[in-house]
Design a protein that fits this description.
The chain has 259 residues and is of the alpha+beta class. It is 45% helix and 22% strand. It is built from eleven helices and eleven strands. The strands form two sheets. The chain has an eight-stranded mixed β-sheet, sandwiched between helices. Strands 1-3-2 form a three-stranded antiparallel β-sheet. Helix 8 links the parallel strand 5 and strand 6. Helix 3 crosses helix 4. The termini are far apart.
Length: 259
């Protein structure tokens, strides 16, 4: 029978303390007993279980992780980080369309902010602070708020910032109706590029570049207010967001600036 990973997952879970101790440094069984304040019999069983799944090896009575053990631990930690984010972000993720999907690379190690119902604007603080020192911002706009127009127009008063927005067709049409906002000033700027998406957009994904590093994020909204945000600055998350935004832009239609 082909291995299905169950034995490896079980060993990772049951023998996590010994696994992590050996990840820190090789050790003999007596040293593991001292490190973990455990019994010799418990250490013996743990080593036997880890040997059964090829995760440890012995050299002169000193045990260390094999390559399999190191890879397994790294994947376990990645999975654990992703599921922690999913659990924290559950109220936000449930707002996504049924056909929307997010890769584990975006969720692993992300920072989750869920808005306080009494102070919903605080959920957008992270992106606002990043925008203040950004050199570039790209984003998807499945919805539009008047506040968005004011925020972007004010941010673009600062030299050195370029903004690219891919908006749903309905959002592009709605912009012209926001007569009490500086929308005309915004769309006429050379530092602002607007695109009409080829279809519905699953989320308000954005990528902000700053001198200190790049950050990918998704802003979640319901009935106009920000309900939360998921932000990740890991290279894998940024790479995914960059590829997603590039793909959406290539399929979109640029909107000409007014003359």
């Amino acid at each position: 029978m082909e291995p299905d990973g169950h034995a490896l997952r079980s060993a990772l879970y049951k023998r996590a303390d010994v696994f992590r101790s050996l990840a820190d440094a090789p050790a003999s069984k007596p040293e593991l007993v001292d490190r973990l304040s455990s019994s010799r019999s418990t250490v013996d069983r743990a080593i036997a279980d880890l040997e059964d799944v090829d995760c440890v090896e012995s050299c002169g009575g000193t045990y260390s992780l094999t390559a399999t053990g190191r890879f397994a631990l790294a994947e376990h930690d990645r999975y654990a980080a992703a599921t922690r984010t999913v659990e924290r972000a559950a109220p936000l993720l449930n707002e996504l369309p049924d056909d929307a999907s997010l890769p584990s690379a975006f969720l692993t190690g992300a920072t989750v902010t869920v808005a306080d119902p009494h102070a919903p604007s605080e959920a957008a603080t992270a992106s606002s602070e990043l925008l203040e020192r950004a050199t570039a911002m790209r984003g998807l706009a499945p919805t539009v708020l008047k506040s968005d127009v004011f925020i972007l127009n004010r941010a673009l008063d600062r030299e050195g910032l370029n903004v690219e927005v891919i908006a749903e067709p309905e959002v592009v049409e709605a912009l012209s109706a926001l007569s009490d906002t500086p929308v005309a000033s915004l769309v006429s700027r050379n530092s602002f590029s607007l695109y009409r998406s080829a279809g519905p957009l699953p989320y308000a994904l954005w990528l902000i570049e700053t001198p200190e590093g790049d950050h990918a994020g998704i802003t979640f909204r319901q009935t106009g207010d920000a309900t939360g945000m998921v932000v990740n600055d890991s290279p894998a998350a940024v790479e995914w967001a960059d590829a997603e935004l590039t793909s959406r832009r290539e399929a979109a239609t640029p909107i000409d600036r007014p003359v």
